[in-house]
Amino acid sequence: MGVYREQVLPRVINKVCGTKEMQVMRAKTVQGLHGTVVEIGFGSGLNVPVYPQEVTTVYAVEPATVATKLAQQRIAVSPVRIEHVGLEGESIPLADDSCDGALSTFTLCTIPDVQQALAEVRRVLRPGGAFHFLEHGRSPDAKVQTWQRRIEPIQKRLFDGCHLTRDIAALVEAAGFRIERMTAEYAPGPKPFSWHTQGVAIALD
Ligand SMILES: C[S@@+](CC[C@H](N)C(=O)[O-])C[C@H]1O[C@@H](n2cnc3c(N)ncnc32)[C@H](O)[C@@H]1O
What we know:
Layout: H1 2-16, H2 20-30, E1 35-40, E2 55-61, H3 65-70, H4 72-76, E3 81-86, E4 99-105, H5 114-124, E5 125-136, H6 142-158, H7 168-174, E6 177-186, H8 191-194, E7 195-203
Parallel strand pairs: 1-2, 1-4, 2-3, 4-5
Antiparallel strand pairs: 5-7, 6-7
The structure holds S-adenosylmethionine.
């Protein structure tokens, strides 16, 4: 799995997650971000072109070296200062209350200890700071959930630990956030993979 995981998968994700439709969803997700933002699972920087102009600095957290290299072209033409600060969402090397906003797209499915990563996002966000997210996860339909549970072991092997059954809203709330706005629906495609949750959650005091 070494070459596949380290060399091939980041390139596949860069293509599959970079479609026009996905960029529209990303643009909607980042609306309202401003100031200093931490982005976990920065990947190949597919969100960089849609950062609002009010964003001044982005602290990127990403473990995949190839994805970080693929991001360089996008970073080079962005007016935003982007600094790669760490490898894992579970351990973000930033001070408490140091960010105005946080961003995660298609990453909470993959991070091994997602509760710890969300606790870290909460820690580095100032109280009242906003966590913007766009994630796939557990469908509310029992039949689809059954398929998600069946497929998940294969999905995890093929896509670097990507889960299909994580309840994104519940995880975010449990980490000390109040969900301010959220939409959840199926995107086009097979239902076990396409239940998407997009929202903004506010860091509680
Ligand atoms: C499906 S990709 C999404 C990438 C990017 N956020 C996007 O929207 O295109 C999941 C990303 O999570 C990253 N990742 C895996 N484990 C992680 C961890 N512990 N902390 C932060 N990111 C992680 C992967 O390297 C990969 O770039």
